[in-house]
Amino acid sequence: MTQPTDIRRVRGRWPRLLDLFCCQGGAAKGYADAGFDVTGVDNRPQPNYPFTFVQADGLEYCAAYGHTFDLVHGSWPCERYAVVTRWRGNPDDHPDLIGPGRQVMQATGRPWVMENVPETATARLLRPDYILCGSQFGLRVRRHRVFQTSWGGGGELLPPCWHPRGRNKLMSFEHKDERAYANAMGCTWMTSLEARKAVPPAYTQWIATQFLALEGRAAA
Ligand SMILES: C[S@@+](CC[C@H](N)C(=O)[O-])C[C@H]1O[C@@H](n2cnc3c(N)ncnc32)[C@H](O)[C@@H]1O
To answer: Ligand 1 centre and the CA of 127: distance in Å?
Structure first.
């Protein structure tokens, strides 16, 4: 059960976002653009992460410090669930972090966001409160991502996704140009190869503004 954020408590400072499994900060950038002070956690060094970074296990860090943030975001690794992993190897080689992840996020008592590939919604592991695509934001990428939130979605006004074949959309495997895919994603500080795992910042900026509007403190 999450607690409503005390708006008075954050007046005079930016709301704080914990970005679990942050990689190089695609999701983080969107929250920062919406006005969050972002701290990222990843178990591998991320020298290009553009905000405060802590190298640690995501579950352990969330359990210890998650309650000190205003909003907790978790991009749990998708290898166990993604169809593409089945082409490359055995999904069972990758840990199932969604169940333990949800538990540890709920235990913080703070509002939270879980992001993952659409296969997690098909398998009913994530409730698809929001399903976002690059085409809804004018991005040249077809990249569906599912978001489950502690507030359950709602309030959204977005056009449907629209990406017919041959309409100049870039796919993540078309990263021969070192920057083209990253730039199309809005991840201009990454290479195209690095951007393959990233969440386009436009998605999380939109999720963040949904959260701030529902909390009654949209940026003035
Ligand atoms: C899909 S990427 C995250 C993408 C990121 N949210 C973005 O938008 O750029 C998943 C990340 O989880 C990290 N990771 C995997 N297991 C972890 C763990 N136990 N604790 C912390 N990070 C972990 C990986 O190193 C990888 O960078």
So the answer is: 21
Lowest-confidence region among 30-39, 79-88, 147-156: 79-88
The span from the CA of 150 to the CA of 164, in Å, is 33
Residue 115 and residue 73 in contact, taking contact as beta carbons nearer than 8 Å: yes
The pLDDT > 70 percentage for the chain reads 79
Residue of 22, 55, 105 with the most ligand 1 atoms within 8 Å of its CB, for mutation: 22
22 Cβ inside 6 Å of ligand 1: yes
Higher pLDDT, 48 or 80: 48
Type of residue at 39: T
**Structural domain span for residue 63:** 14-215
Q: What is the CATH number of the domain that holds 145?
A: 3.40.50.150
Q: Is 80 exceeded by the pLDDT of residue 124?
A: yes
